[in-house]
Design brief:
With 380 residues, this protein is of the alpha+beta class. The protein is built from seven helices and 18 strands.
Length: 380
């Protein structure tokens, strides 16, 4: 996932008309060296700083003594955004506030974290089955069952025992070839025949073999719906259902074969033809946000919580997985919370600029973070 951070000097040019909307707090326990500055400047509640050198703090407008750039003003307000203590603030960020006019200027849009069921579309390469080995193994199992039935009343124990061993061996072979217990049980019927493993006719069921990558196997189960497409189908999508998944991983391709049954193919499907397979795997009910709402550096992921009066709070979240345009959140966010879904990069840049003007937060031991409202290190 690519995420970009606007340079501070570009931010100063873009945000100069509205950078005065940055909001902080008069008693910032996370930055004790800044408290004395705020106390001295309590009447005007503002600080002038350089976008390129945020360590420069002045009481009024002027030029940066290092680079000569014009200083920009950051207003200091006493209140924190609502929810400031309900999550971990990402590194080098701070809460901010923007007026409604400034939000409209940069195109801020909002969304709500939803708790809803998600489905993952698992795409795989497939082929129409041509499986003489499985066809032979099925017939051998059926014959072993018939042989066991013929000798069940034999007075010779060894004959009955040998027939049972033949049935067990044939059943194990079918499991290794990927058949489920339910599919094996169907072979017991006298009229069972799967000649479509060799050749098929229009209007008859067809087997499709899909190669599922190792990382997706845990999400593929019998009974799930599948869609089959191919260039030779002329835009037709064939519906199917997953019947079984191989128990053994192919060591060369690191995939497992999923067997998909397509009922009543309306056209002639030639064995070994390549097809595209999409399996819809349910992932359960998850707290979800739009893909564009999440910012990610690879080390941390965070979103911006929208509070009252134009307040924005950066909050660290953990990502479970991506499902299309939705992102499932593991922790750090609850369903129903209002979040920012557009203009995140600009808000993120101003949050970084605000944090830079306040200075570094105190260092906490491992597995702890600095809690701003509590003014102490708290467990993660």
């Amino acid at each position: 996932m690519k995420r970009f951070v606007y340079p501070l000097f570009f931010l100063s040019l873009l945000l100069n008309p509205w950078v005065t909307g940055c909001q902080g707090q008069s008693k910032n326990p996370a930055h004790p060296e800044h408290n004395s500055l705020l106390q001295k400047q309590a009447p005007q509640k503002e600080v002038w700083t350089c976008p390129m050198h945020p360590q420069i703090h002045k009481d009024g407008p002027g030029q940066c003594p290092i680079c000569g750039m014009s200083l920009v003003k950051v207003d200091i307000h006493p209140e924190l955004p609502s929810g400031a203590g309900s999550g971990i603030i990402p590194d080098a960020h701070a809460p901010i506030a923007l007026s409604a006019e400034r939000q409209q200027m940069i195109g801020v849009k909002f969304s709500v974290a939803e708790k809803k069921p998600l489905f993952k579309s698992i795409r795989a390469a497939g082929r129409l089955a041509f499986d003489p080995e499985l066809y032979t193994a099925q017939n051998e199992y059926a014959e072993a069952l018939r042989q066991l039935d013929r000798v069940k009343d034999s007075p010779l124990p060894d004959v009955n025992h040998s027939a049972k061993r033949m049935v067990g061996s044939a059943q194990l072979r079918l499991k290794i070839l990927g058949l489920s217990d339910q599919q094996i049980a169907q072979i017991k019927s006298a009229d069972f025949s799967e000649s479509n493993l060799l050749i098929n006719k229009p209007g008859q069921p067809v087997w499709v073999y899909a190669d599922i990558y190792e990382m997706d196997i845990s999400n593929v189960r019998p009974g799930q719906s599948a869609e089959i497409t191919a260039g030779f189908l002329g835009g037709i999508t064939l519906p199917g259902k997953v019947a079984s998944v191989d128990r053994v991983i192919n060591p060369n391709t690191r995939t497992a074969k999923a067997r998909i049954l397509v009922q009543q193919a309306a056209t002639l499907l030639r064995p070994e033809s390549y097809v595209d397979v999409t399996i819809l795997a349910p992932l359960g009910e998850q707290v979800t946000v739009p893909f564009d709402a999440v910012l990610d550096t690879g080390k941390q992921s965070w979103i911006f919580i929208a509070g009252e009066n134009g307040q924005f709070m950066p909050r660290v979240v953990s990502i479970r997985f991506h499902a299309g345009d939705d992102v499932a959140i593991g922790s750090g966010l609850s369903g129903g919370e209002k979040i920012v879904s557009s203009a995140n990069f600009l808000i993120d840049s101003e949050s970084r600029l605000k944090a830079a003007t306040l200075g570094p937060a105190p260092t906490c031991p491992n597995e702890q973070h600095w809690d701003i409202p509590m003014a102490m290190c708290m467990p993660n």
